[in-house]
Amino acid sequence: MDAQSTDRTANAPMTFSPIVAEQMQGGGDFLVRSIDLAAVGPHASPVAVLDNFRVRGRPFPPHPHAGFSAVTYVFEDSEGDLRSRDSLGNDLVTGPGGVVWTQAGRGVIHEEMPARSDRELHGLQIFVNLRSHNKLIPPSVFRLTKDQVPEWDTSTGNRVRVVAGSFESVSSPLQPAEPFTMLDAQLLHEIGFTLERGRNALIYVLDGAVLVRAGDRAEVVTAKHALGLGGGSGLVTVHTDPHAHIILLSGEQIQEPVLVHGSFIMNDVYQVEQAVLRYEAGEMGRLTPLR
């Protein structure tokens, strides 16, 4: 995703999704604010889950994933660190500002939790779908610490953390199987980027409000809401006054059938059945629960 300031011509008009509000789930030691991506519609693809969570303790035992990437980004304001274990042998502790990208492919078992049960973990959980030809690739786990996430900033106060993909002249070292952009942006003024044909963008406002403009269309998106864009190409600008904190996600729209079965995201029943068989046969590895 490269920023542009000119040339709005010769591009198909982009369309906007409805503006979708967070939905709060849980409470106490496990609070999740979810964006209903079904309400966003096709412009959400390839993102299949977008959850802003606060958690203590161990919310889930080890569980399998297949057919997509499970991404956990630790917000910089998180009190605690993330501990991520998996059947590939990784046992990682990642502090605020870091990310763990579990590219499940044909299948992996993992477990994520606060590294210390007495400290709240604040993060973003994202499921990024994989195309059919990548659903059986060997699983891989990528991790960036806070210092490994590159940043772009300006003298006017904008600060963009490039977790994945690129922005302006800054590129993340994280290289998933399919191109994907994830930006954590603190804005005091306008930024712009070019959305290419065949790609979608999802703008999730955590704090403040932004004016999103593409061609002749503009929408105001306030805190705790998200907006999807796609269906065309061209310059998108995001303006704020006086400030905003946003997450921007962008990837190629996957125009394939999607079948979600528990923690598997596949194209059809046969693929799901094969994933279940791989899991039951131990082909996704083993992960002993922590005591």
General description of the model:
The chain contains two helices and 25 strands. With 291 residues, it is mainly beta.
Shape field = globular
Mean pLDDT: 94
What's the end-to-end separation, in Å?
44 Å
- Determine the structural class based on helices, strands and strand pairing: mainly beta
Provide a count of the helices. Answer: 2
Number of strands: 25
Chain oligomer state: single chain
Write a short abstract of this structure.
The protein is mostly beta strands. It contains 2 helices and 25 strands. The chain is 5% helix and 50% strand.
List the helices and strands and how they pair.
Blueprint: E1 15-16, E2 20-27, E3 30-35, H1 37-40, E4 47-55, E5 63-65, E6 68-74, E7 82-86, E8 91-94, E9 99-103, E10 108-114, E11 121-129, E12 140-144, E13 151-153, E14 159-164, E15 166-167, E16 170-171, E17 180-187, E18 191-195, E19 199-214, E20 217-222, E21 225-230, E22 234-239, E23 244-252, E24 259-261, E25 264-266, H2 269-280
Antiparallel strand pairs: 1-21, 2-3, 2-21, 3-4, 4-11, 5-10, 6-9, 6-11, 7-8, 7-10, 9-12, 13-14, 14-17, 15-16, 17-23, 18-22, 19-20, 19-21, 19-22, 19-23, 24-25
